[in-house]
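RETRY 2/3 - previous attempt timed out on the joint model. Re-submitting the same 354-residue input unchanged.
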Amino acid sequence: MATQLVMYEEEFTQINAICDRLTKDANAKVVFLVDKNGQLISAAGQTQNIDTTSLASLTAGNVAAMGGLAKLIGENEFPNQFHEGQRDSLYMTIVGQRVVLVVIFDNRTSLGLVRLRIKKASDELTRIFEALLKKTATPGIGSPFAEISDADIDNLFSE
Amino acid sequence: MSFINYSSREINCKIVYYGPGLCGKTTNLQYIYNKTNAETKGKLISLSTETDRTLFFDFLPLSLGEIRGFKTRFHLYTVPGQVFYDASRKLILKGVDGVVFVADSQVERMEANQESLENLKINLADHGYNLDKIPYVIQYNKRDLPNAVAVEELRETLNPRTVPEYQAVAPTGVGVFDTLKAVAKLVLSELRKGG
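RETRY 2/3 succeeded.
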């Protein structure tokens, strides 16, 4: 069972900066970082016309399905996936076995450049997530919900 | 596994609706989608076959409000109920925080209910979860049908541990929100323990 993903200010800022830079360096339209369970972690670029929550969930579903297929043929997973569309294409990379980096791009850039830039960003992100997991596992960092009461929970459903 | 973001002050939890084919999992989500305000819900995604049977999953993101300054979001998923979609069904359980088992009350579906519940336990175990230890509620759906089995019998067969149970008629919404609230409360209580 995987440990719970907890995001702190410091790492969140670093991750957002990497996604922003990757968008520019790869000349991509959008860059997303999604947890394998389907939770959106970060989004950069032209995200305004995209339903980011649905994108995150479908990415996780896709990665899970491809992972299942990989195991059927004796592979551990398919760490990289490329889907080519008429205008926009999509590249997915599994980072640190835990999250998925998604880059959406069009013909203003090339698959080669996108792959090259993803490699660098992916290495940096792996390091951050390793640090993050260590931090989460550190005793003394309690759940922010340790203090909530039954009344707090009931209030959510009061209407 | 829930995702807590201290920076954006958000918490995201995953709830999975499980149960045999045609028991009403998708109908539960559709009712919730139709009855919630536009600002609290996202798009309902259904990956289904041409005959409207769930192929991979349905997905509905829902915001419930704030607890102690944290926005609480629930991601509701259904699994494909048909027996032969087991490989996909297992995938959906990855990272689950709470489970709703939707039972079909019709007498001829009792065996399918039992089979699906066993399948749920096996698939959870594959991810390292134990149904006895995670937030879990049961919904007895299709209570309006003439061939519905008595609740006592359903309880005896499907709910020996007497987890919270709700009677429902999903198309009209009876019991749908009660079920959702119950599982959401259990998930939040679990977070209090430190997830």
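DSSP finds four helices and six strands in chain A. Closing ticket.
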